[in-house]
Design goal:
This is Alpha/beta hydrolase. By secondary structure, the protein is of the alpha/beta class. The chain is about 40% helix and about 20% strand.
């Protein structure tokens, strides 16, 4: 367990918690909303067995990281990632994001380039641009996100219950791919996160990543379930191969948003093959 300081708020350090295991070329795993770095537990062992160094970390406001009231935007999230990368002096790395973590992957490459990056992976991606607009008709209406903010303000724990049901497609996959205990563990992490950060993150989902995608010059794996209820696949994953210079794309039939947990065989197979094919 380690911490890296990424800024200050008043007299307090803003610190990111991270875990760093193994040796070899590094793979940095960036979690989704509203979880933390532990959510990669079904991917970490395979990567370690494949001879990779694996780093997970908790986004500000989540897990064991600091809970400031500021900095919930992708410029800051990418700067936080960059601070971690520089502190650990990571090179020849693969950066892999799930859900909201795919925004860090994309903005990091857009702002800091690929000098330290060998490859990237986006699982259940939020790019290219989630908000419906005149120049983005494939997006989601803004009223959807306004409703989410209202629900969080009204009763955050109740919102998280409904969110995690759709996150895992519980009505279809309960008992087969998501247990009561696994769902409860996710809820515990989500409920324990910063209330301010939870609400503030909703606005970040509307970030336009199209310019960042143009700067991505590394091989990029895109994986998404075709029954994703959180980030509609027609607004997100299916659009990315046409916007990336070197994309490898996999759709998981029947997969919900949280495919790293519910479909680890498919996700791990794709990720391990990709890391092997793009590694040394």
């Amino acid at each position: 367990m380690g911490f890296v300081t990424v800024g200050k708020e008043n007299a307090q350090d803003v610190r990111l918690h991270y875990e760093d295991w193994g040796s070899g070329d590094p793979v940095v795993l960036i979690h989704g909303f509203p979880l933390d770095g532990q959510s990669w537990e079904r991917q970490v062992p395979g990567l370690l067995k494949a001879g990779r160094r694996v780093i997970t970390y908790d986004r500000r406001g989540f897990g064991l990281s600091s809970r400031p009231v500021t900095g919930y935007d992708y410029d800051t999230f990418a700067a936080d990632l960059n601070a971690l990368v520089e502190a650990l002096d990571l090179r020849e790395m693969t950066i892999a994001g799930f859900s909201m973590g795919t925004g860090e992957v994309t903005r990091y490459l857009g702002r800091y380039g690929s000098q330290r990056v060998r490859a990237a992976a986006m699982i259940a991606p939020i790019p290219p641009y989630l908000l419906k607009a005149d120049d983005n008709p494939e997006g989601v209406p803004g009223t959807v996100f306004e409703e989410i903010v209202r629900a969080i303000r009204a009763d955050r724990p109740a919102y998280l219950k409904a969110f995690l049901d759709d996150f895992n497609n519980v009505d279809k996959l309960h008992g087969s791919r998501i247990s009561d205990q696994a769902w409860q563990a996710q809820w515990n992490v989500a409920a324990g996160a910063s209330a301010i950060g939870t609400e503030a993150c909703v606005g970040t989902w509307l970030t336009d990543f199209r310019d960042d995608l143009r700067e991505n010059d590394v091989p990029t794996l895109v994986v998404q379930g075709d029954e994703d209820r959180i980030l509609p696949i027609d607004s997100t994953g299916r659009r990315l191969p046409a916007l990336l210079k070197d994309a490898r794309y996999l759709e998981i039939p029947g997969g919900p948003h949280n495919v790293p947990w519910t479909h680890p065989e498919e996700v791990n197979g794709a990720l391990l093959t990709f890391v092997r094919d793009t590694g040394r």
